[in-house]
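Obj.: predict assembly geometry.
Materials: sequence records (below).
Method: joint structure prediction, all chains together.
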Amino acid sequence: MRISLFIACYNDALFPHTGKAVVRVLERLGHTVDFRPEQTCCGQMHWNTGYLREALPILRHFVRLFADAETIVVPSSSCVAMMRDHYLKAAQMDRDPALEREVRALLPRIFEFSEFLVRRLQIDDLGARFTHKVAYHPSCHSARSLHLDEIPLRLLRRVRGLDLVPLANSQECCGFGGTFAIKNADVSSAMLADKVRCVLNSGAEVLTAVDNSCLMHIYGSLHRQRTFVRAVHLAEILACTDDADLRLAPDQHYAFASSEFSR
Amino acid sequence: MTAPRTPGSAPHWNRRDFPDAAREALAAQPPRDDLFHHSQTRKNVRHATDVIQAKRNAVVAELPEWQSLRAAGAAIRAHTLEHLDHYLVQFEANCTRHGGHVHWASDAAEARRLVLQILAPHAPREVIKIKTMTSEEIALNACLEEHGIHPVETDLAELIVQMGADRPSHFVVPALHKSRGQIRDIFAREMHRPDLTDSPQQLAAAARTYLRQKFLSTRVAISGANFLLADTGGVAIVESEGNGRMCLTLPEVLVSIVGIEKVLPRFQDLEVFLQTLPRSATGERMNPYNSIWSGTPVGDGPKEFHVILLDNGRSPILADPESRQTLRCIRCAACLNACPVYHQTGGHAYESVYAGPIGAILTPQLHSMHDAQSLPYASSLCGACYEVCPVQINIPEVLIHLRGKVVEQQQSTLAGSLSLWNIAMKSAAHLMKDGSRLNAAVHLAQTAQKVLVSRNGFIEWLPGMLGGWTKTRDLPALPAESFRDWWRRTRSAHPSAPASSESARD
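Observations (raw C-alpha cells):
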C-alpha cells in the first residue's frame, strides 16, 4: 500500500523521531511511505483557539494537498479528531460546497497511526521488543473522539519484554489543551500535577501515548522535577526491535533526545 | 476584556477573568507554588466530585439503553426548542385552566418586579425557598432583603451557603466546597448550637429542627422547576431532601420562577428525564421526592400559584443554530463533576451563577457575549462533559463556536487586533499556508532558540505569555534537523526507489 504520512507540524519540528519510527514500522510491514514536503498543519490550534477564519486556509491546504492520496496516516490523534470532528463544519461555515465534497471524500482515508495498524491492517504484533515498565496515557482525543479504546493497549501487549502497568485516573485530561496550557497556565499546571502524581505512582519507567502533544506536556513536568520517567510516543516503542534501539540510560533523564535510533 | 454589563445580569458575578479567579482558587493556601499541595477547597471539591462521579457511573452502567436514553433526551429537548413558542403558550393555557397564574419576564429586573408585586398583598416578612437557579440568576435574595423580606433557603446545602454568607459553587450540590467541619462551624455559629459535632446525622438533625419551624410558620414559598409540562400545565420538581415537598404543600402562596427552556411537550416525556436526570445529577436511580402539580386543586396545597416564565437572555441563544443546543440543558451538573478544570478550581472561579462546562457556554451567552468572555476558554476541550451529558450537548463544539465570537469581537477593535495573541495567531496562520514558508520558520527558530536552551537541552524559561508554560514545565528544544529535512536528506535523492526497512534508521 502507498501510505502518505501527515507528520503534524509539531512532530515535524519537535519530534522527528516519531516520524522516523512511523516510517520504519510501515516500511517493515512492506508498505511504501510517501511524504509531501508541502504539508503544514491541520489547523487545530487556530480552530480551537477561536481563530476560525484563520484556520480555513490551513485546512484547505491540507485537503487539497492530500486529495489524491490513497491512505493518510497521522501519528497524532488530536489532528485526526480535528479533521473528523470539525472539517465538515468548517467547510459549511465557509459556504464552500466544493471543499465540503473534498472533505467528505478524504475523511474515510485518514487514519491515526495505531488505528491504521489495528483497524485497517488488522495487525497488532509488530515484532517489537522493548524491555521496560510502560504506562499508557489515553489522550482525550484518542479516547473520546476517535474511540481508540483498547487499540494502543493491544499493540503494547504484543511487544516483547514490555511490562504494561496500569495508570490511575488515566482518562483524565493532562491539562494540555493546546493554547489552554498558556491561557490558563495555572489550572493547566494543577491538572498536570494530578496527572504526574498518577504517573509517578504507577511505577512506570516510560509513559507512552499516541499524541506527542500530551507527552510533551506531561514530560515537561517530569523533567522539571528531575524524575527518571521518560515519555515516548507509541510509534517509537513499536519501532524498537532490540533494546539498543532506545537507549534509556539512568543518567539521561530526558526522553526525546535519548530516543534517537542507533545502529 | 469585561464590557459593560447588560441589564439584568447578576451584579455580584463576573468581575474577573477566569484565569485570575482560578489562580486565586488554586493558590488559596501556602506553599503557593507547590501544585501537589491541595488547598482545603480543592480537596473538598475533588472528594465530592469523585464520590458523585463514581455513583453516577455505577447507576448509568446498570442501564444497557443509556445511550438511547441520551439520544431520546436530546431529541425531545431539541424538538421542544424548535417549537418553544407553541409549547409555552400551550403550557400557559393549561396551567391557567387549573387555576395557576402565568407571567412572562423578559429580563431579571422584570422578574424581580413581578415577584414583589405578587408578594405585596401578602406582606410576608419571610419566604421559604426551594433551591432554584433562576432565583440566583435574577439575584432575588438581595432584592427581597432590600424590601424587608427575609428569604430562608430550605435546601440543606443552600442553607449552609446562606448562613455562611457564601456563594453556591455547584448548581446541584451548592456547598460541595465545604467540608463537614466547616459546615459544623457555620451551624454552631448561626444556630447558636456550640454543642454540635461534625457527624452528618447531627448536622442534618440541626438543620431539620431549624427548618421545621420555618415550614410551619411561613405562608409564601418561592421555587424554580425542573420541568414544565405543556400538555397538562403541570410543573415538576425533583429533590432529595423533602424540603421541596414541604415548600410546595404547606404555604398558601407559591411562586415558581422558571426558564422558558424548561418546558416539555408531554407528561409522558418525563419517562426519559426521570431516568437520566437523577442518575446524572446525584447518582440515584430515582429522586426520593418527585413532585408534579397542576395549578391549585381544591383542598390541597397552596391556594395561590404563580409561574414566572423567565427569558433573561435565552431568546438570543435560541436564535443561534450553532449554540441553541445549550438550552437543552436539564441542569444535572454531570459536566461539572466530570470536568478536570472544575475539579481543580471549584465553582467560584467561574464567577458566574452557572459554573463548570455548561456555565462556560451558558453564562457568556445569557449576557449576549458582552460579559464573561474568558469562560469559553476555561476548558482544555477534553470532551469529558459531552461524554456524560444526558441530553448530548456537544459542549466542546459550542465552546469553540463561542471562542470564535470572542476572537471576532477582539479583532473588531484596534487594541484587540494589535494584541500579542492576535498578531501571533495571524502570523502562525500565514506560515501554515505553505510548507516551505513553515520550514523556513522552523530553521529560524532552530537558530534563534539557542539563547533560551539550557545545557540539558531543554528550555526552562520563556518570556511573556509563554512564561505560563515554563512556570511549571520544561520544553524540549527543537532538534537540529526537522523530520522534513531528514526526509529530504535521506530520501529525496531517490524518490522513486522503494525504501528498505533499514533506511528509516538515522
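Conclusions so far: The radius of gyration of chain B is 27 Å.
To do: check interface contacts against the pulldown list.
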